[in-house]
């Protein structure tokens, strides 16, 4: 395969980190790189940059030449601090190598797999990217290496896709090679929680694997929390995101209840948040997107279904989350009807289509499904989003962000995602505004979902 190299003239400064695990082991002279990152998406690239900033020699691998070109051109969607890190890293080829050549994985002391784990349109886990990545890593493995899975998946996946195949190759796990799991905890676009600050949970196939995994994470993480097994670490991540999914579904339900009772739901949530214990604020919205919450709980439900284990609360929560975009469409049709307008031919403008503010990520964004459904019922739909200049819908339809939304003269506006730099001064009061964020109180005359 071809590789992409980056020119450099200086090394990034090494920043000392505090941690609650064993002291760092020095870089192994048997390897050219301290760590290889497989997959350079919203998780892998920031992870690679964090290791580079800590002084590690990083092999950054992605099988997509297009993605590598985007990174090399400094066009990746990153928070400002990671942009600065990328700029430094791209000037240090001895310590940060971009490549698409999987054969180079044998040059790294540790390999971290950071590929996506999506679900299909029937919410069935799509393990193809992870299976392919793990098979590549297993084939390239050599004695002395550590393999760490960070992709969220089902309980037992690290054993099935990494540990067992390595054993079949003749490796003794915990002596020849080391197998660990430590799910990522990156929140794209959130500058309030730097990677170094968020604790990492790690489990190993053996106690020695756990020890080596903790040492690797301690190169940049301020705290490493060890658990007793791979399965415990895998289940921890599933609990984290299932917890969020269930509570978001509850918040959406409370929004509907409050709407029926004419009670301001955001005021209720803020009031409840004054309780210093036993409550955590979750806010309603037009749906759930991104690489975690709409997908991860389905890996658990998929596994439990095969075991005939009931998970009624989780199942209902995910059903409600999946139904939320259609609920938004129904609300828009209702609001149009109350204004004396039908959906057929109505001009609908969606403000913001990425799944969360201030990121360019469209994965699982409810806006895409909402737009498709609105078009299906006869509406003329356009959108505006400076973070997403072009979208491709599941139906095959495509749209470009409007350069002048006011010129569209919408009948109704859905505020789906409000970026901090979004200019809504063009809203002149003629169009009805449906606030899908529930928090755009500065928009006069808005109605809530």
Automatic annotation (TrEMBL):
Residues 1-10 have a biased composition (Basic and acidic residues). Gene3D superfamilies: NAD(P)-binding Rossmann-like Domain. Pfam families: UDPG_MGDP_dh, UDPG_MGDP_dh_C, UDPG_MGDP_dh_N. Residues 1-26 are annotated as: Disordered. SUPFAM superfamilies: 6-phosphogluconate dehydrogenase C-terminal domain-like, NAD(P)-binding Rossmann-fold domains, UDP-glucose/GDP-mannose dehydrogenase C-terminal domain. The keyword Oxidoreductase applies. SMART domains: UDPG_MGDP_dh_C. Transmembrane segments: none annotated. Residues 349-440 form the UDP-glucose/GDP-mannose dehydrogenase C-terminal domain. Keywords: NAD, Oxidoreductase. PANTHER family: UDP-N-ACETYL-D-MANNOSAMINE DEHYDROGENASE (PTHR43491). Belongs to the UDP-glucose/GDP-mannose dehydrogenase family. This is Nucleotide sugar dehydrogenase.
């Amino acid at each position: 395969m071809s590789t992409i190299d980056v020119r450099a003239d200086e090394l990034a400064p090494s920043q000392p980190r505090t941690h609650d695990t064993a002291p760092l082991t020095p870089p192994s002279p048997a390897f050219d790189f301290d760590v290889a990152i497989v997959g350079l998406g919203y998780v892998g690239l920031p992870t690679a940059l964090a290791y580079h900033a800590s002084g590690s020699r990083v092999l950054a691998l992605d099988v997509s030449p297009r993605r590598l070109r985007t990174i090399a051109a400094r066009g990746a969607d990153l928070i400002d601090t990671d942009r600065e890190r990328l700029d430094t890293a791209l000037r240090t080829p001895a310590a940060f190598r971009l490549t698409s050549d999987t054969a180079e994985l044998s040059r790294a002391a540790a390999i971290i797999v950071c590929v996506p784990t999506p679900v299909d349109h029937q919410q069935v886990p799509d393990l193809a990217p992870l299976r392919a990545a793990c098979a590549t890593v297993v084939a390239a493995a050599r004695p002395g290496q550590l393999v760490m899975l960070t992709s969220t998946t089902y309980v037992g996946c690290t054993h099935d896709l990494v540990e067992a195949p390595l054993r079949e190759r003749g490796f003794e796990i915990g002596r020849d090679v080391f197998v660990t799991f430590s799910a990522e905890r990156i929140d794209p676009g959130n500058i309030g929680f730097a990677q170094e600050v968020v604790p990492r949970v790690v489990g190993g196939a053996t106690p020695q694997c756990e020890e080596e995994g903790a040492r690797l994470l301690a190169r940049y993480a301020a705290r490493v929390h060890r658990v007793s097994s791979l399965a415990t670490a895998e289940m921890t991540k599933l609990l984290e995101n299932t917890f969020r999914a269930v509570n978001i579904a509850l918040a959406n339900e409370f929004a509907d209840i409050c709407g029926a009772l004419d009670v301001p739901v955001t005021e209720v949530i803020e009031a409840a948040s004054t309780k210093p214990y036993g409550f955590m604020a979750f806010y309603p919205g037009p749906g759930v997107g991104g690489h975690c919450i709409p997908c991860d709980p389905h890996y658990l439900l998929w596994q439990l279904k095969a075991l005939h284990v009931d998970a009624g609360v989780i199942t209902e929560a995910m059903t409600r989350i999946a139904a939320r975009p259609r609920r938004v469409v129904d609300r828009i049709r209702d609001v149009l009807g109350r204004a004396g307008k039908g959906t057929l031919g109505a001009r609908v403008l969606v403000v913001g289509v990425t799944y969360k503010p201030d990121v360019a990520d469209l994965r699982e964004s409810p806006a895409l499904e909402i737009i498709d459904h609105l078009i299906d019922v006869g509406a003329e739909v356009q959108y505006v989003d400076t973070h997403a200049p072009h979208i491709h819908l599941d139906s095959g339809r495509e749209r470009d962000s409007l350069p002048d939304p006011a010129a569209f003269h919408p009948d109704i506006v859905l505020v789906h995602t409000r970026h901090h730099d979004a200019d809504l001064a063009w809203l002149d009061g003629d169009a009805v505004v449906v606030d899908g964020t529930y928090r755009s109180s500065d928009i006069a005359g808005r109605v809530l979902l």
